[in-house]
Amino acid sequence: MIVLELAFDDSPQRLAARPAHRQRLAELHASGVLVMAGPFADDSGALLVFAGDRSSVDAIVAADPYYSVDGVRVAGLREWLPVLP
């Protein structure tokens, strides 16, 4: 699994890009690629958990303009080895 951590600021571009991004997330979840995702309670960022390998997640990030819009920063992207389901 791959964990992607995002950091947010208050940029209006981020908020404008969010609906299309969430639609992409819903499609990835429906296909089984995205296990879970959601913002932190203080809206300072989000955490996404993907099934698959780093190269597939790199491609997902590259294809979604949300990850490079003002107000969104990829704070971490790493392999995760969960012990419990």
Automatic annotation (TrEMBL):
InterPro entries: Dimeric_a/b-barrel, YCII. Residues 12-80 form the YCII-related domain. It comes from the Bacteria. Belongs to the YciI family. This is YCII-related domain-containing protein. It comes from Actinophytocola algeriensis.
